[in-house]
Amino acid sequence: QKEVEQDPGPLSVPEGAIVSLNCTYSNSAFQYFMWYRQYSRKGPELLMYTYSSGNKEDGRFTAQVDKSSKYISLFIRDSQPSDSATYLCAMSEGPDNQGGKLIFGQGTELSVKP
Amino acid sequence: DSGVTQTPKHLITATGQRVTLRCSPRSGDLSVYWYQQSLDQGLQFLIQYYNGEERAKGNILERFSAQQFPDLHSELNLSSLELGDSALYFCASSLNRGKNTGELFFGEGSRLTVL
Q1: Model confidence pLDDT, tens digit, residues A87-99
Q2: Residue A100 at interface with chain B, using a CB cutoff of 8 Å
Q3: A103 — contact with chain B (CB < 8 Å)?
Q4: How many CB atoms neighbour CB A61 within 10 A?
Q5: Which residues are B20's β-sheet partners?
Q6: What CA–CA distance (Å, rounded) separates A34 from A40?
Q7: Using the beta-carbon criterion (under 8 Å), do A99 and B103 form an inter-chain contact?
Q8: What is the pLDDT of residues B71-108, one digit of tens each?
């Protein structure tokens, strides 16, 4: 079993839909949770960053972390064709453990159709 | 543009050969990370350097080595290449004054094809 599990999709939605992306994990030492977005033939870019449990909102994006269930989510409201990309969840134990080593999910490929 | 520069962008070579991938971090960033991305394994952490010193190691093969130079650029050396080494190799950087928590800036990657 992988430390971080993420449904690879692909996921196809119409423009304007609400998108829900999820990851589960097994390592209870993870404290920092991130979502990266990767466009085709590009490097991942940080989208959202959350410490411990709770919600964080940034424009149309909301990240949720539930440490008790070892489950994180990313919601995209009013999805746009420009949101079409692969979304990777990533987790870290924190700076005191192996620096900033991140464990990534497999990535979910999202396509938003006009 | 993340500010992280990787060269070469594409590389095709034969089994048994050796290649060197180069990375220049963002200006001011002290940490450099190397990741390997393949279809079956996803993004896998290889190794991290902080200000010239090795800081953390992942599942990096013994045939692979890396270093960070005084000007903070880094090189990843891959030797005795096998078909399975074909992948995208990403470099990332962060400021990391000992408190990095995973906010990395990735380059565009070097695509290695081993024939």
Answers
A1: 999 998 876 555 5
A2: yes
A3: yes
A4: 17
A5: B77
A6: 19
A7: no
A8: 999 999 999 999 999 999 999 998 766 555 668 899 99
